[in-house]
Amino acid sequence: MFYILITVISFIAGSITGLIGASGVMVIVPGLVMLGSSTFDAIGCSLFADALASLVVAWTYSRYGNLNLRQGWPIALGSILGAQLGSFISPNLPEMGVGGSFGVLLLVSAAMFWRKGSKKAAIKPEGKTTSNNDEVKGFLKVLRNNPKTSGTILGVLVGIISGILGAGGGVMILLILVFVMGYKVHEGVGTSTLIMAFTAASGALGHAFTGNLPMDIAIPSAIGTVVGGRLTAGFANKIDETILGRIVGIIFAVLGALMIFGVGQ
Hints:
This protein is mainly α. It has one domain (2-263). 77% of the residues lie in helices and 0% in strands. α1 (2-20) packs parallel to α11. The radius of gyration is 18 Å and the shape is globular. The two termini are 27 Å apart.
């Protein structure tokens, strides 16, 4: 029964990953802790499951042409390095709740994606749609014009946070790709999951070195997330960009509320 519950919990987490490209940490870690795992073991298992599920999800998105590492590879490199640092910092931190602050991030992200899903493309008189670069100004324009430097720095920060929290960094990477690099939502989800796979694998390796990766729990966790992610990724690629943006916003809002009022307590 114990392993069945782990698989079910992980299936839900994988379904979230496949649909919106977010890490399953919000589901797997509290679920495993409630089943008796230590926080640090749960984090290691979450990273292991994220790594495998994200590869499957990214492969699914690539079949629909929604995978673009042009600006994504510097983020991937930075996040891998950062995840190693974060995974070694994590066991030295007290087991205190971080759900509240991460929940706030999710709520802010929800508002951003809902707004993006509600916006319609501006039409120029000659019938051409305006590009994202035409609307970018200030510091954001500097970041977008220097994708290698900005991507690497942002990736390191994402990796550190991911290694500490046990998340593959999907939410933060998705935000960077869509709102900094100007990716479409489908393309952002597909690319962020591939980057998340490498980030999570790096973090899981670090937790294995510190003895916080029990394979008897990690394997059923990975099976559930892979199956759930594969099923929902196919559905996500078939729906309209606007609808997907709104779905991302709604799920982020729900997860954010749960993190603040549930897990964060």
